[in-house]
Design a protein that fits this description.
Helix 2 packs antiparallel against helix 3 and helix 3 packs parallel to helix 5. Helices cover 81% and strands 0% of the residues.
Length: 168
């Protein structure tokens, strides 16, 4: 199990690093959907079914919905935002086994905010906070996804600089 979770963690790390370097919203989100799914399986193998697993799976589903919006050039409705907020909080509370399991819920709320953003730079900023929160969680549970968080932090900072808008 440990070897399988480590391999999934390293693949997720690669996907996460790549995702922030992609120029378009739908590509960033697509790579993050894969990362979330792999992250869910990784944590499931390490810690069992908990809030991080449920939140990562919900995150992958949420991204798929948002990608459809990107393709159809639609924005998320207020009802949809409220629904996902409720779903994230419910998933975080249902999966709560230990006090530490509240950390993924906090990080995921920033992730949710990022998914709803329409500008790529805003997605990156929200995800930077999400990444830092999850970095603490993965360090505490001993997941190889900590590497994803460390390298993703660097990747986000690079992409924020790379895609910054220059004011004349």
């Amino acid at each position: 199990m440990k070897l399988a979770s480590d391999i999934l963690g390293y693949i997720a790390t690669l996907m996460f690093i790549i995702s922030f370097q992609l120029p378009k919203r739908k590509y960033i989100l697509s790579a993050q959907a894969v990362t979330n799914f792999l992250g869910a399986v990784n944590v499931l193998l390490i810690a069992g079914l908990n809030s991080a697993v449920l939140l990562n799976l919900l995150g992958a589903i949420h991204i798929i919905v948002i990608i459809e919006h990107c393709i159809n050039q639609k924005e998320s409705t207020k009802k949809e935002k409220i629904l996902f907020f409720i779903l994230y909080v419910a998933a975080g509370l249902i999966g709560l086994r230990k006090v530490i399991d509240i950390i993924p819920l906090i990080g995921t709320l920033f992730f949710m905010g990022g998914v709803f953003q329409t500008k790529e730079q805003n997605i990156r900023i929200f995800n930077l906070v999400n990444i830092l929160v999850y970095l603490v969680y993965y360090a505490m549970i001993g997941s190889t996804l900590i590497y994803a968080q460390i390298f993703a932090t660097c990747s986000v900072l690079i992409s924020l600089f790379r895609y910054r808008t220059k004011k004349v």
